[in-house]
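EI: anyone free to look at a 260-residue chain?
SC: sure, send it
EI:
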Amino acid sequence: MTTNPTSCVSHAQSGLNKLVLGAAAALALLGTAPAMASVVNFESLSPDGIYVDGDTLGEAGYTLQAIDNHGGTSGVVGLLVNGMDPTSCWLGGCPTNNTSHSYLGLNDGGVTIKKDDGGKFSLRRLDFGFVAPFGGLPNFSYGQLLLTGTFANGGTLGYALDFPGLDNNGNPLFDTATLPTGFGYAELTSLTIRACLFDGAGGCTVAPDISDPSIYQAQFAIDNLALAEVPEPASLALIGLGMGALLARRRKSAPSSNNA
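SC: here you go
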């Protein structure tokens, strides 16, 4: 009597197949996983910190460096304030609807942001406002917040946000901006933030010279910067290699079976 052999798969081989499928699914999820996010909100830093050109402050894995756009002649170009302390801005002019710590860019100054490890990141969202030289001004937008991102190859990408208006007492307000995809998902190695003032002729003046009466008045406030870390391709490759080694080891140790 002739018997027809029936093929079958061993339990070990079935388990290996499941492991392969699981590893593939995990790698697929890694490829679509969202970037790790951090928020720089200045709450871990002591308020009333004063910054001149080149001074730095750090939080959440990022370093912010103050910039003097007048060649080091502006004096103070950055200040950390506590929104709960009414004496932080005794002349008025600071945003009034924020009760937490925030960073002020003063006297036409700016700030550059980089990751501590030199990696890439994106700015997804931030709170921002104008800082007026004093309170009691008419209620309208005085200028723009200017964002300039730098890529690894040295190229740049810019985006501008009109400052929100003022409250009934003539003091600026904070607003929240979510950056559009074209800028908010750009993979940057550094980000520079500064302000400009509307010139009445359709333009926005940045750091005018000493003869301009608006000098030292391009000022801004920022808070709650949502920064997303961009995973390096090498990191995903290492994870893939690790899973590949695990699969090879499992395949080598799995017993083979030719019995029906």
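EI: Helices lie at 11-32, 181-184, 233-253.
SC: 👍
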